[in-house]
Amino acid sequence: MIAILAAAAQGIGAHAPLQWLDLGLTRGIDLGFFTLRWYSLAYLAGIVLAYWHVSKTLKLAGAPMAQRHADDLFFYCTLGVILGGRLGYATFYAPQLWADPAEMAKLWQGGMSFHGGLIGCTLAMAWVAARGGLNFLRVCDWVAVAVPFGLFFGRLANFVNGELWGRVATAQVPWAMVFPDGGPLPRHPSQLYEAGLEGLVLLVVLMVLFWKTRARFRPGLLTGVFVAGYGCARFTVEYFREPDAQLQDFALRTGLSMGQWLTVPMILLGAALVARALVRPALGEGSRGAVEAVAP
């Protein structure tokens, strides 16, 4: 796949758009009695890597929780992401699902909202923090750093599934691609744009801030960077992503897609969290305020 994209970038075959079908991708692993969807594996990979990273950071001075809290956190966050993602999709993108509970339950047919999943995950973190007497904002900071793992794999799964493709591209976009369900015209592979911006770029920024600076001792800073960073990345990529068929009229009427409208409050909230964190004094490493939540 990389070789094909590189060749396109150099102008080779510029008059013949890339074909998603030529990549030889499948939408899952056929086990005979069951097809294991890449979507499921993407969720699993994101959760496992996030759990690994958070567990690793709990060994640092000033961690806001103990390992037992992290174990509870990822159990409830997994439920929050799945339930919130599905309910968010029904609320923001497919309201008709509310009238058909049986269809709502068919997660294997696709249809998950990041914003709904984020709300579900946030509620799960609030529950664990309240029950364990933890600092909610610092728990969010520790988790936010690892969220881009899941975003990266999730967007790659969208590409492998040949879904959520981009808008029709001009001839000046040599990496434009024809998706089998997207019609005969070449389109932006916006799933890869999102994997790069929401996943890799945001992951690098947050990892550098966490490991190379004292950002983790400013409650809310990492959370704010994640929320605002994701909002800006998603808002930008939406200009290249085809709106959901049932929401194209909405995008035409309002001038922005549903995804862009949903990111506006995220950008504002993230900016507010960053500003708040920077104007307040940082926690001292090893101070009571930084380590109080670590005690068993």
UniProtKB/TrEMBL annotation:
Q: Which residues of this UniProt protein bind a 1,2-diacyl-sn-glycero-3-phospho-(1'-sn-glycerol)?
A: R155
NCBIfam families in the record, alphabetically?
lgt (TIGR00544)
The record's family statement is:
Belongs to the Lgt family.
Its gene name is lgt
Membrane topology field: Multi-pass membrane protein
Function, in words: Catalyzes the transfer of the diacylglyceryl group from phosphatidylglycerol to the sulfhydryl group of the N-terminal cysteine of a prolipoprotein, the first step in the formation of mature lipoproteins.
The keyword Transmembrane helix belongs to this UniProt entry's keyword annotation: yes
Q: Which organism is it from?
A: Novosphingobium bradum
EC top class, as a word: transferase
What's the protein name?
Answer: Phosphatidylglycerol--prolipoprotein diacylglyceryl transferase
